[in-house]
Design a protein that fits this description.
It is a single chain. The chain is mainly beta. It has a single domain, classed as Sandwich (Jelly Rolls). It has one helix and 14 strands. Strands 1, 3, 4, 8, 9, 10, 11 and 12 form an eight-stranded antiparallel sheet that branches. It has a two-stranded antiparallel sheet with strand order 2-5. The radius of gyration is 14 Å and the shape is globular.
Length: 138
């Protein structure tokens, strides 16, 4: 992988994220680190890659926690300003909150995605992030 982070900073980068590619603009990689008790995935976004707007749905508890480990990225909740992310940042995403996250235009971005256990959990994938809005980000 280009950009000097072939091992995705801490954990192995994993394979290209083809199973979820339809919900991403650009190329991402996924390495599932845990499926026992708590689902944890190491996600690497190439520069400019981001996922679509989505909601982590649950009837009780649920949501997601992002533990940022490398590069520079963005997180945005619907109706809020985008938040720039760097290694060491933590994002708590409650169930039911529409949001997106991904890399900056000129940097790859790596985070651990921790699925918060809950009841009746699933991801509701929505529309891509508006390209003109994304292009305004530094």
């Amino acid at each position: 992988m280009k950009h000097g982070l072939s091992n995705s900073v801490i954990f192995a980068r994993g394979e290209e994220n083809t199973d979820f590619a339809q919900y991403f603009v650009g190329r991402s990689y996924l390495n599932i680190l845990s499926l026992q008790g708590v689902v944890i995935g190491n996600v690497t976004f190439e520069p400019g890659c981001r996922n679509n707007w989505h909601i982590h749905q649950a009837s009780q508890s649920g949501g997601q926690i992002l533990l940022c480990t490398g590069g520079r990225g963005w997180y945005q909740e619907w109706g809020q300003e985008p938040r720039e992310l760097h290694a060491g940042d933590v994002v708590h995403i409650p169930a039911g909150v529409k949001h997106w996250h991904g890399a900056a235009k000129n940097s790859l971005f790596v985070h651990l995605a921790v699925e918060v256990p809950g009841q009746d959990t699933y991801n509701q994938w929505l529309e891509p992030v508006d390209q003109s809005q994304y292009d305004l980000l530094p």
